[in-house]
Amino acid sequence: MNSFSDLVVQFDIDMNVIITLLFLPLIVTIVGFARYVIGVRSLGIYAPIVLTFIFYEFGITKPGSIESDVFQGLKFGLFLTFIIFLTTVVSYKILKKWALHYYSKLSIVITSVVLSIIGVLVIADLTNNPGILKISVFSLILIASVSERYMNLFAFNKSTKKAVFLSLETLGISILCYLVISLSSLQNLLLDYPLLILLNLPIAYMIGRFSGLRLTEYYRFRDVLDTEEE
Amino acid sequence: MGITNILKNRNKVLGLNKRNLTYIRKYNKDKAKEIADNKILTKTVLEAADIPTPKLLAVIDDYRQLINFDWSTLPKSFVMKPVFGLEGGGIDIFFNRDEQGRWIRADKSRVSEADLKRQCIDILNGKYSLAQEPDKILFEERVQNHKAFKYYSYKGIPDIRIITYNNIPTMAMLRLPTRESEGKANLALGAVGAGIDIATGVTTSAIYGKTGGIEYIPGTKIRVSGLKIPYWESMLKYAIQAQKATNLNFAAIDFLIDREKGPMIVEMNARPGLSIQLANDDGLRWRLRKAYGLKVSTIEKGIRLGKDLFGGTIEAGVEQLTGKDVIGIVENITLYGKEDQESSVKAKIDTGADSTSMDKALAIKLGFDSIIKLIDSGRLPTGISSSEGHALEKPLYEELKDEYPDLAEVRFVQSSHGSSMRPYVNLSLKIQDTKFETKASIYDRSKLTYPIIVGRKSLFKFLVDPSKKNQIK
Questions:
Q1: Mutant choice from B6, B63, B387 vs A, greatest count of A C-beta within 10 A
Q2: Short-list B302, B419, B444, CA closest to B364
Q3: Are the CB atoms for A38 and A207 separated by under 8 Å?
Q4: Considering only B312-326, B382-396, B402-416, which range has the smallest mean pLDDT?
Q5: Start and end of every ATP-grasp domain (chain B) (predicted)?
Q6: Cross-chain residue pair A221–B13, CB shorter than 8 Å
Q7: Cβ neighbours of residue B13 under 8 Å, at least 6 residues apart?
Q8: Among all residues of chain A, which has the CA nearest to that of B17?
Q9: At CA B139, angle to CA B137 and CA B140, rounded to 5?
Q10: Average pLDDT for residues B43-55, to the nearest whole number?
Q11: Is B55 helix (H, G, I), strand (E, B) or coil?
């Protein structure tokens, strides 16, 4: 039988599409691990997946190849995430004072996010900084829609501090996921033995049944835990 | 202390995972959750079971009803709540109405009918409900603060939460509104949470927002511990009755106490928060394990079990509880020194203090001069951080024990007097007719009323009844 990677070559599928597909379940598992075992929350499942693949796309050095530059991925990815986050929060905070319906507010916020992305692209072009221009149109749409998650967070959270903290936790998880999926040894392993993704099933089951204290809870309840038996 | 304790105790504390997987999923059926999540349904079920709850004044189901709502039907003072609200979000309390027809809040801010309608639209839109689903609005009578809490709560009314499991009250907490929480009894906003001893209804330890353990209500000299909750017995009874009526087998039941009408259930929660463990300085999981599977045939038995299993000193089991002496807050006790020299003093029984501590002068009387010398030598550092302090306990003791044979232990203590390393000695003492050994720290109490306070670690053989204090001259 042909190996899976031969098949991919034979049908001329972009290797990165395959990587993305194979790693998708793993990312979801990592997000679950972060929440139930470590105790780090994320903004749903959608935001970390999108952010992870944005980092991944920026890290690709040659189109069609799976070689990636982690530093470059993080540099551009974090920069763009930051711009989107900032635009969302600032425009939302301004809009908040007006009594508008939620989706209308969102529409204005997304408009300003898209404008700022265009601004970034124009500046990158003018300053001869092509790295950030490589990103695909589809990813741009995805990244703009992440701002909906951010806005939702600020709209339904009373404390700005909490919202910022949750965004940072999401970013942290996404960076962790990115570092895992850009390991070339892991990529090659999965390309050679794609059925390995079935391992996600028992792992997800184990995490799903985990009923111990989360790591962050050891900290939260440290005073209760650290008592002498009488 | 440290890692070994934490690992040993990890099965005593209830975490989110265990709560969700076992206690909510398994023991709270969907139908019971539906009752708890819907405040109108909760009221209906409780009223049918003759359990007191604030009187329902009006309900607004949708926009059409909001437009047609006749505001003049409401009294001057009322509470407005989202029917599916979470964690107290969206609740507004009005005390009076001014000449222009505006309602007045506790903080003196005024709200016109148009403002109120806007708030109502937010609620109907689901701003405070789970997953932002469309909501309804309920108006109920305002509960008036009981005088027992007058000096304890800032502006708002404190609430009392009892967690019941398997028809047994397992843990309880008093939440006191503070200046920081703007009169709301919400820990996340900075309210004080005080643990309640199930057996006596008296507050024990307390936490304040995220700052951790406290002894006094912030900005006051009022001790949080030692407050006797009025109507405690009937609240335990209502809690179990409410659990039976709603079939919610793992429930947090929230009470308010009205000045005239007494305790009323304002809310039932199918997903109890975990901070109650911090307020009680004890884990909930071991208590739930103990309550599991017990046959509770009557309400009285449920109360009895709760008191016996979880009341009194934290670790006390049923066996220890029987035959305990009941003592007051001030007791005449006898101390026995190194050479058995006796000394009778008036002592403060302080369930809010962790351990026993005595004054320097008293320590000299009992023959512990060497420890006084140790204190005066300046070899015990003060004003250090808690992590430094805890790390120092063992090495410091090892270093000093040969030179000072009376020294039993060195412990880091943080109190309202500042943080310091305190020396401990072994001490025999007699309260009423029970003589026992305990560890006591020594420090300067000359400016305080009592030369000795007896703390929790020395009180395992006793039950403390605060109302008993007047019997002692």
A1: B6
A2: B444
A3: no
A4: B312-326
A5: 43-305
A6: yes
A7: A213, A217, A221, A224, A225, B277, B283, B284, B285
A8: A211
A9: 140
A10: 93
A11: coil
Q: Which residues contact B303 (CB under 8 A, 6 or more apart)?
A: B169, B233, B236, B237, B240
Enter the tokens of residue B97: 């109405």
Contact A228 B5 (CB under 8 A): yes
DSSP per-residue string spanning A130-145:
GGGGGS-HHHHHHHHH
What pTM does this model have?
A: 0.70
User: Phi and psi (nearest 5°) for B439?
Assistant: -100, 140
> Quick count: other Cβ atoms within 10 Å of Cβ B26?
10
B112-140: pLDDT as tens digits: 888 888 888 888 888 888 777 888 999 99
Cross-strand pairs, B443: B359
Half-sphere exposure of A86 (CA within 13 A, CB side): 9
| Any B CB within 8 A of A222 CB | yes
In the block, which residue shows the tokens 């005088």? B147
Q: DSSP letters along B307-326, please? A: HHHHSSSTT--HHHHTTPEE
Residues 6+ apart with CB under 8 A from B464: B200, B202, B326, B327, B328, B329, B349, B351
Contacts of B301 (CB under 8 A, 6+ apart): none
Dihedral angle computed from the Cα positions of residues B87, B90, B93 and B98, in that order, rounded to the nearest 10 degrees? 170
Place of tokens 């009022």: B222
Domain B326-471, what fold? Answer: Cathepsin D, subunit A; domain 1 (2.40.70)
Q: pLDDT tens, B264-317?
A: 999 999 999 999 999 998 899 999 999 998 888 899 999 999 998 898 744 333
ipTM of this predicted structure: 0.80
- For the segment A95-111, the average pLDDT, to the nearest whole number, is 84
**Residue B323 has what pLDDT?**
57
Tokens at B52, concatenated: 């007191």
Q: Could you give the 3-state DSSP secondary structure of residue A83? A: helix
- As a whole number of angstroms, the distance between CA A29 and CA A52 comes to 13
Strand ranges (E), B30-158: 56-60, 78-82, 92-94, 96-97, 103-104, 110-111, 137-140
Among the partner-chain residues B2, B12, B16, the one whose CB lies closest to the CB of A217 is: B16
Write the residue in A214, A222, A230 that is nearest to B16 by C-beta.
A214
Question: Where are chain B's structural domains?
Answer: 11-37+146-319, 55-140, 326-471
**Which of B56, B309, B35, B274 is CA-nearest to residue B169?**
B309
- Quick check: A225 and B6 CB within 8 A? yes
User: Which architecture does CATH list for B11-37+146-319?
Assistant: 2-Layer Sandwich (3.30)
CA distances B325 to B53, B309, B433, Å, are: 37, 17, 9
User: Distance between alpha carbon B111 and the CA centroid of its chain, in Å?
Assistant: 34
